[in-house]
Design goal:
Blueprint (H helix, E strand, L loop, with lengths): L2 E6 L15 H16 L4 E6 L10 H7 L8 H6 L1 H12 L2 E5 L9 H10 L6 E3 L14 E3 L7 E7 L18 H10 L4 E7 L6 H32 L3
Parallel strand pairs: 1-2, 1-3, 3-6, 6-7
Antiparallel strand pairs: 4-5
Length: about 240
């Protein structure tokens, strides 16, 4: 059984194409999960709407609690980290992260960045070799991703007001969303990273419609490929 974490970060309720002023990214994530369930009806799906209920921002109390050794954490510190712990547990359990978030001002919405900050946790999702801890600069390769214990995939489904933000596009250098998300997720050990986006939202009309249909078709192909891969790997595992 495949475990999916379905996360929506858009503040817009509803889905484009179904609800007035609905979210394009919510449409994409719903499409991905629906397609996956059509192939694997018993797949486990955990849903979290951080657009409606954003994770807590990093605070002085959060930092103090995070960097206090486990045996010295107070009940108050544990309470401060409780939601972050729940977010981390969801990521650890998932095989595929289905992440929907729009591009805002060349980067992610605040709720998505807060989610990243809550799941990149020393001792939970990443660690480092203590022999380098006293150095002023710790080379990145000495960090240990704790989620590399088994294959995991992250599927980032986005929407953009303009166009040309894909890697080979004329505005690729202005897109700080997908590269940043890829870096953070690979840092904790999620090596499978896939991104699909709708563009031309501000222009609308036929350009938006064509981009939407292209994104939905790409999701269909990605779902089929990932499902075939996971099914093949499952069949190779000993009974």
């Amino acid at each position: 059984m495949t475990r999916l974490l379905h996360l929506d970060a858009s503040p817009r309720p509803g889905r484009a194409g179904t609800h007035d002023h609905g979210s394009h990214t919510r449409r994409l994530t719903h499409h991905f999960v629906s397609r996956w369930r059509s192939l694997e009806p018993d797949a486990e799906v955990v849903y979290r709407d951080i657009g409606a209920n954003p994770p807590p921002l990093t605070s002085v109390e959060w930092i103090e609690a995070e960097f206090t050794p486990a045996e010295k954490k107070t009940e108050a510190m544990k309470a401060v980290l409780a939601e972050s712990d729940a977010l981390v547990d969801e990521v650890i359990r998932a095989d595929i992260l289905v992440l929907g978030a729009p591009l805002y001002n060349f980067g992610p919405p605040a709720a998505f960045k807060a989610w990243i900050d809550n799941i990149v946790r020393i001792g939970r999702t990443v660690d480092f070799d203590m022999q380098y801890g006293a150095h002023p600069y710790v080379p990145l390769e000495h960090y240990v991703p704790l989620l590399s214990d088994r294959p995991r995939h992250a599927v980032l489904l986005s929407s953009r007001g303009g166009f040309g933000f894909d890697p080979q596009g004329p505005l690729a250098a202005f897109n700080h969303f997908e590269p940043g998300a890829r870096t953070a997720l690979q840092f904790i050990g999620i090596d499978g990273f896939h991104s699909i986006a709708i563009e031309h939202q501000e222009e609308g009309g036929q350009a938006l419609a064509a981009s939407t249909q292209s994104a939905l078709a790409r999701i269909d192909r990605l779902v089929e490929r990932l499902h075939n891969e996971t099914t093949a790997k499952r069949q190779l595992q000993p009974a």
